[in-house]
Amino acid sequence: MAIRGPRLEFSVGAFLLLALASLMVLAVASTNQRWSWGGEGYELKARFSQVGQLRKQAPVKIGGVTVGQVASIELDPVKFESIVTLRMDSKVKDLPADTSAGIFTSGLLGESYIGLQPGGDPDVLKPGEEIVFTQPAVDLLQLVGKYMFSGGAGGGAAQKPNDGEQSPATEPQP
């Protein structure tokens, strides 16, 4: 005998809505989405030859503290470099003009982020200016491939003797 009624249907509906809301929150959290639309801050630009797995809205950090996020990643059609636009928090002011930017990964398989290292220049970066000193992302798969196919830790093939000559250590003694 099945129990049906408005209470059961309401309970099932409420449960489904709660499950969908939970999945939505999980999806937003796992893709680095932020719930803010707009907000205060300013933009800086940086050029990289390789961005690896860097994504839009990835964090920008100074000393491990998030101070902004990646606003956009575009290709320069002339130099074929990636132009990354950083949306910096308005609380982070007066970054030195010689600040450097690098693309790093949190852990072995973690998310990519941009790490800023402030310099000591008395001049500061103004909104819209470009960070000149950059370090591209390191592609771990490419590094492993180079290591595997270059002969491993030995650094390559064994050395050949010099045109049939013997080294002094292997010459026969008279």
TrEMBL record:
GO MF annotation terms: phospholipid binding; phospholipid transporter activity
Region called Disordered, residue ranges: 154-174
Domain of life of the organism encoding this protein: Bacteria
Domain Mce/MlaD: 41-119
Ranges of biased composition (kind: Polar residues): 164-174
Protein name: Outer membrane lipid asymmetry maintenance protein MlaD
Organism: Stenotrophomonas lactitubi
